[in-house]
Design a protein that fits this description.
single chain, 372 residues, alpha/beta, Rossmann fold, 2 domains, seven-stranded mixed sheet, 11 helices, 17 strands, elongated
């Protein structure tokens, strides 16, 4: 009997992406699988059920999909109640966020559902690059962060010389020079702003300059390389030194975009409330790291626009890819399809905890929570 792959309709508030788009359905069917798509799963990404049907998928309601699917694909973790309705031996794959949603992982273990989380993909492995959903979504998040900032900022990004006078270019600071940071820098540059980037990792200095931006030098701040492209967590003393140095410089900028995260930990707080208050009226901060665990900006809240005294706006933007659902879904679908092909080498699910790609992503297996 063919393996059955089910595509869940997302239920998280504000989540408009879908794990599979019609374009990748033939590839999944080519693995020897039947593809079920929950009715309306792609509606918010401008993908009607009829397009999935034309691509070879079968529409199904939630009950049928949960009962029949051997592999369930999602973007964000489904509700615990839905996981508890699954059967032992099924496989759940998505950005399960085991740090922020441990209750979902625990429910998978209780029900005997295996769970693979794309959040934990070993990104330095060349054979895993096609599965790297964090990178594809971070690229979109950085791009969208620049547009959100430009929309919230009440002035021009580029320098404009008109009969009514000259408008100075916006001064933008991007904190954190990973995929999202570089995407934000590039987009702000294309919009005409003068852009400065900062990261504690020494190798990012040349990366910032390579995209035409300046690098922010902070006297007395320790550099901190890390593993897998991330910076290591700073000590308390290093963090205080960094905050103090940044606080003295942030007031120079009209817009600050923060993107710094450390896997499995609370995001580092880079911008203090005092630094926010020191910015010019009308300034904008977009915090891509805003989450229930905290953010890079003191006082930022996930998916919330906070107005500080003197008109400084702090925008907690924890899920910007969902605002570009068609493009983000297409990229994510290619990532998850590559992973599914790896998990179904002969048309049947193979979970190998010792596999260098799958092992680190396996968060629940054989009735146990396996995430470290």
């Amino acid at each position: 009997m063919a393996t059955c792959i089910g595509v869940l309709k997302e239920s998280a508030p504000g989540e408009h992406r879908v794990a599979v788009v019609p374009a990748v359905v033939p590839g999944l069917c080519g693995l020897g699988a039947e593809v079920l798509v929950e009715s309306g799963a792609g509606a918010n990404a401008c993908l009607p059920d009829s397009e999935y049907a034309r691509a070879g998928a079968v529409p199904a309601d939630a009950a049928e999909l949960d009962a029949r699917a051997d592999v369930l694909l999602c973007v964000q973790p489904p509700p615990v109640e839905r996981v508890e309705g699954l059967r032992a031996g099924q496989l759940l794959v998505g950005l399960l966020n085991p740090v922020g949603s441990p209750e979902v992982v625990a429910a998978c273990a209780r029900c005997g559902v295996d769970a693979v989380s794309l959040d934990l993909l070993p990104r330095t492995l060349s054979r895993a690059q096609s599965m790297d959903a964090l990178t594809s979504q971070a690229n979109i998040a950085g791009y969208k962060a620049a547009l959100v900032a430009a929309d919230a900022y009440g002035r021009y990004f580029p320098m404009l010389m008109t009969a009514a006078g000259t408008a100075k270019p916006a001064q933008v600071l991007v904190l954190g020079v990973g995929v999202a940071g570089l995407s934000a820098i590039g987009t702000c540059r294309r919009l005409g702003a003068q852009v400065t980037g900062y990261d504690i990792r020494p190798e990012t200095r040349e990366e910032v300059r390579s995209v035409g931006a300046r690098f922010l030098d902070l006297a007395g701040v320790t550099v901190a390389g890390g593993v897998g492209g991330y910076a290591r967590a700073l000590t308390d003393e290093e963090r205080r030194s960094q905050q103090e140095a940044l606080q003295q410089r942030i007031a120079e900028f009209d817009i600050v975009i923060t993107t710094a995260q450390v896997p499995g930990r609370r995001p580092p707080q880079l911008v203090t409330a005092e630094a926010v208050k020191g910015m010019r009226p009308g300034s904008v901060i977009v915090d891509l790291a805003a989450s229930v665990l905290g953010g890079n900006v003191e006082g930022s809240q996930p998916d919330c626009d906070v107005l500080i005294a003197d008109g400084v706006r702090v925008i907690g933007a924890s899920n910007l890819p969902a605002l570009m659902a068609p493009g983000a879904s297409a990229a994510y679908a290619r990532n998850i399809t590559a992973l599914v092909a790896h998990l179904l080498p002969q048309g049947e699910v193979v979970i190998d905890p010792s596999d260098e790609v799958v092992g680190p992503m396996l968060v629940a297996h054989n009735g146990e929570v396996t995430v470290k």
